[in-house]
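Complex 481.
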Amino acid sequence: MKKSILKKQLEDLNKINHFRFHMPGHKGRGNDFDLFAYDMTEIPGADNLHDPQGVIEEVQEKCAKAYGSEEAALLVNGTTTGIHSAILGACSPGEKLLVPTNCHRSVFGALALGRIEGVFITPEFNTRMGFAKEVSLDSVKEALIKYPQSRGMVLTNPTYYGTTSDVQAIGDYLHSQGKFLIVDEAHGAHLHFNQELPLDAIAAGADVSIQSTHKILGSLTQSSLIHFQGSRINRQRVKQFLSLLQSSSPSYPLMISVEEAVDTAFEHGEDIFKKIIEAHETFFKNQPVTAPITLYNGDDSGTGYDQSKWLFHTRGIAGSQVEEILSKSYGIRCELSGKNHVLAMTGIGTTQEALKALTKAIKDLNEKIIHGELQGETLRPGSDLPQEFLFAGAVKTEVPLWQGLYRHKEKCPLAEANERLAGDFIIPYPPGIPVLLPGSRIDQEMIAGLNHLMDHGISIVGINQKRELLLFKEKGDLHEA
Ligand SMILES: Cc1ncc(COP(=O)(O)O)c(C=O)c1O
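Predicted structure with pyridoxal-5'-phosphate bound:
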């Protein structure tokens, strides 16, 4: 049989990248099992994810117990569908939901699908590196005082960058006002299993949390968990949407991988993450503050930093250049990079050998930069552009979000988009947070910002390589084909 082109490509990538510091968390070192032997349909005895009453129910109960939640459900379409279902189940069309602007695209997708109105909250920023951090309790209070009819809030915790908000204080406040809290814990499925890590959402009192067990724990990509607690959110409604939106042929290998990932984390998580945290602390404590590449350890805000994330601040050298050198010269593939940062994500599959290789490589690069053996890229004009603009409420729309999906669109060059309304979700990847929604007004600052990101190698979903994007037709009617 001819070799799959895709398989070959991934094998080639594996040959170059010895040390994976990107998702998924198993780092290619999961439990070996013959996928085809376990790839089945809902024959008698195999239960049914859409109405679990047998072995799947048992697994779900075990997962809930491991996390201390009241109920858990396996997800086979990622946290994305868990978020869609949680929001659609918790809010009816026309209702309002508090949404920090740094939420993942799935949250905005849920608003559009459910015809729900987002009340946008601006998070705090790390201005040095240009990313959104925690959401303050004050900003939540302010939004709720202004829009008291909001049904509740969705909060991303921890963020892609490992920063946290005070979930407990935000949850307590929302609950005292009769509101719910849904936590997008896509990056936090490991938190529950190590005492040094920030508090997980269920322990902090969230009503629902959704976790990508594939990102830092060891399950297969696309598998996730949703947890329920209390009665503020109607579980039956959430489950109804899960059943509507997830595949009617749920993958058993994905479900098995979640169960095994949770078992492993339950048994060994404390120890595995202890080693990762200790290595992080040692690196952080011993680094010269003046080094060109330094490890970030949070900003004394929020409720602690998730030290499974190794986020480096770069000076005199672009983060994207460091990412490239790590891959080409040291066989280390990171998760993401930006103008002045590069993120190495550890996970349950990260070995001591990999941590040593990363530590050594960064020290080596620092030496080379200090001794002039490695020249940082000359930053292009405009590269000092503040990145906060990306998160600062650019997601306002001039028509309800759901209507934006039905408008008549046309493709136009980005350069000609000034003052026009975006026709699509425009999402820099990473971190997958939309900067424009269908119906957002585009201005010159946004155009410059998007060009800047693309000049620095960041790909943007919604803008093609020719730098064209969809805009509303200026005289397009709703529902026009
Ligand atoms: C913050 C956040 N939420 C949700 C998701 C969606 O998770 P999944 O890939 O499991 O669908 C992601 C994915 O990158 C994410 O970063």
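The domain at 35-263 is CATH 3.40.640.10 (Aspartate Aminotransferase; domain 2).
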